[in-house]
C-alpha cells in the first residue's frame, strides 16, 4: 500500500507497506489524520520515519508517542531532541523485513534525510514533483549534491515528497525549461487529479528528469540561479 494522507495546508503524511507487512509512516505534521486513518483501518505501524526538523513535519511526534508508545521513531540528528528511538543520517538499516536506505539530503535543512525503500523515495522537502525545497539552514552546494544523489537512483523510483506544490512548480518549470512539452503534458494530468482532490504523486524519477528544472541543472551556478528565481516566482 502507498498512500498520501493530506495534512495541514499542503503537507502529506505518507504511508507505505509491502505485502501484508505493517505500515511505515513518513513525517507527522499533525496527529488527527493518522488517528482517523488507523481507527478506520486497524493496521499495525512498523515505524515513524522523520525527514527533517520542521514543524510541519514533526509537530505530531509527541501525540504520536502518546497514542503509539511502542512504535519506533527514526530520524536524523536534527530531530534527536524529539526523543528518537534511533538517529540515522546515512546508510542502511533493517526493520520488520524492510530494508531502508537513508540518503543524506541536506540543503533545505542541514541534516535532512530521504528514505529509499522498495524503490519508493520519501524525500520530504528535498525534491518535490517538478521542483525542490528552499534552501534554509543548509546551503546551495549541499542541496545541489543532495539532488545529484537522488538523480542517481533508478529511473523507476517512485517520488513521494512532503508537499503538494506540483502545479506551482510546473508553472515555474514552464518558464525555464527549453523543452516544455513534458511539462505541458503533465500539467493536464495534474490539473485533472487536483480537481478530483487526488495527490499529484507518486511520480517517477524518469518523469521528474523531464519536468524538474532542478534535476536538469548542469552545475551549481545554474542550480542556484533556478533556486533563486523560483524563490521570487
Ligand atoms: Zn521543511
Summarize the structure in words:
It comes from Lonepinella koalarum. This is Hydroxyacylglutathione hydrolase. One of its GO terms (molecular function) is metal ion binding. Helices cover 35% and strands 24% of the residues. By secondary structure, the chain is of the alpha/beta class. The strands form 3 sheets. Strands 1-2-3-4-5-6 form a 6-stranded mixed sheet, with no helix packed on it. A 6-stranded mixed sheet has the order 7-8-9-10-13-14. Strand 11 and strand 12 form a beta hairpin. It has a single domain, classed as Ribonuclease Z/Hydroxyacylglutathione hydrolase-like (Metallo-beta-lactamase, Chain A, 4-Layer Sandwich), CATH 3.60.15. Helix 5 packs antiparallel against helix 6. The model has no long low-confidence stretch (mean pLDDT 97). The protein binds zinc ion. The site of zinc ion (ZN) has 5 residues, from loops.
Write the topology of this structure.
Blueprint: E1 2-7, E2 11-16, E3 23-26, H1 32-40, E4 45-49, H2 55-58, H3 61-67, E5 73-75, E6 86-87, E7 91-95, E8 98-104, E9 113-117, E10 120-122, E11 127-128, E12 131-132, H4 140-151, E13 158-160, H5 166-176, H6 181-195, E14 203-204, H7 205-211, H8 213-216, H9 220-232
Parallel strand pairs: 3-4, 4-5, 5-6, 10-13
Antiparallel strand pairs: 1-2, 2-3, 7-8, 8-9, 9-10, 11-12, 13-14
Amino acid at each position: 500500500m502507498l498512500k498520501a494522507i493530506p495534512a495541514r495546508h499542503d503537507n502529506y503524511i505518507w504511508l507505505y507497506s509491502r505485502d501484508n507487512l505493517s505500515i511505515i509512516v513518513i513525517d507527522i505534521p499533525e496527529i488527527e489524520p493518522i488517528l482517523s486513518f488507523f481507527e478506520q483501518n486497524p493496521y499495525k505501524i512498523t515505524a515513524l520515519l522523520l525527514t527533517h526538523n520542521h514543524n510541519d513535519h514533526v509537530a505530531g511526534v509527541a501525540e504520536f508517542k502518546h497514542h503509539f508508545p511502542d512504535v519506533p521513531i527514526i530520524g536524523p540528528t536534527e530531530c534527536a531532541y524529539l526523543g528518537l528511538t534511533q538517529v540515522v543520517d546515512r546508510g542502511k538499516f533493517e526493520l520488520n523485513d524492510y530494508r531502508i536506505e537513508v540518503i543524506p539530503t541536506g540543503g533545505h535543512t542541514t541534516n535532512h534525510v530521504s528514505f529509499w525503500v522498495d524503490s519508493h523515495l520519501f524525500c520530504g522537502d528535498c525534491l518535490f514533483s517538478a521542483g525542490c525545497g528552499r534552501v534554509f539552514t543548509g546551503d546551495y552546494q549541499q542541496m545541489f549534491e543532495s539532488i545529484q544523489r537522488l538523480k542517481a537512483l533508478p529511473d523507476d523510483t517512485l517520488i513521494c515528497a512532503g508537499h503538494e506544490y506540483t502545479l506551482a512548480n510546473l508553472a515555474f518549470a514552464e518558464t525555464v525549461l527549453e523543452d516544455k512539452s513534458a511539462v505541458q503534458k503533465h500539467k493536464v494530468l495534474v490539473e485533472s487529479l487536483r480537481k478530483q482532490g487526488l495527490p499529484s504523486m507518486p511520480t517517477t524519477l524518469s518523469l521528474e528528469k523531464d519536468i524538474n528544472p532542478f534535476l536538469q541543472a548542469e552545475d551549481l551556478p545554474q542550480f542556484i540561479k533556478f533556486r533563486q528565481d523560483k524563490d521570487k516566482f
